[in-house]
Amino acid sequence: MALSPQISRYLNPSPSFHRGDQLPVEQVTWHDAREFCDRLSSLTGETYRLPTEAEWEYACRAGTATEYCFGDDVSELDDYGWYGNNSGTEVIDAAALWEEVRQNATQYNQKLRENQNRTHPVGEKLPNAWGLCDMHGNVWEWCLDEWLGSYNEKSDDLKQNGNEAWGDADINENDNRYCLLRGGSWINNARYCPSANRDRYFADGCDYLCGFRVVCFPVLPRTL
Questions:
Q1: How far apart, in whole angstroms, are the C-alpha atoms of residue 191 and residue 77?
Q2: Pair 117, 24: CB distance under 8 Å
Q3: CATH number 3.90.1580.10 is the correct assignment for the domain at 30-217
Q4: What is the pLDDT of residues 58-85, one digit of tens each?
Q5: What distance in Å separates the CA atoms of residue 34 and residue 85, rounded to the nearest whole number?
Q6: Which DSSP string corresponds to 187-223?
Q7: In the predicted structure, residue 113 carries a pLDDT above the cut 60
Q8: Which is nearest to 28 in space by CA: 203, 216, 157, 151?
Q9: N or C: which terminus of the chain carries fewer CB neighbours within 10 A?
Q10: Which residues does 167 contact at the CB level (< 8 Å), separation at least 6?
């Protein structure tokens, strides 16, 4: 897709830090993810875009009201996602490690590098009830919305109409405000991976934690 005709911006055809045909793409900005969706829409004639925050959580939960898509027992997270505990050569306690290094991000990341923690091929863990894999962990996933400090700050209309994003129409190519991330990643401990957990990053920022998935609105056949 990165080699298809440009819509608004250049795309690096191979941006990921961790390389592999089945690995999730990372090191992409929010703007890059939008460009990918625009190119895919142009090529197929269907509408592709990032999910809104509400759509993402709805898909992740798959009809549940528990902390994770599989329930509230965090010990089951290993079966559903790649995160700090299980994404390396040896199984570790990422939360304990974070406290051990006194919440020093540099030291924490170094310990994970020594353990060869990284992304993993998509679809290796169990799917949620709707067949979606890797909703917890592996890479943080961009959502369409601009960041708000609390989901409750959104208007009642936006909460009820989950296909509408907060503020995305106002974010242009030169804008670097915060946008929404969901899902946790291979480097995080379990408390970053629940269905309702939210995070943010600059719209033009990228690192080896940030990827995305898309939603599609196919063209329906005409009724004669």
A1: 11
A2: no
A3: yes
A4: 999 999 999 999 999 999 999 999 999 9
A5: 31
A6: TS-GGG-STT-EEEEETT---TTEE---EEEPPPPPP
A7: yes
A8: 203
A9: C
A10: 145, 146
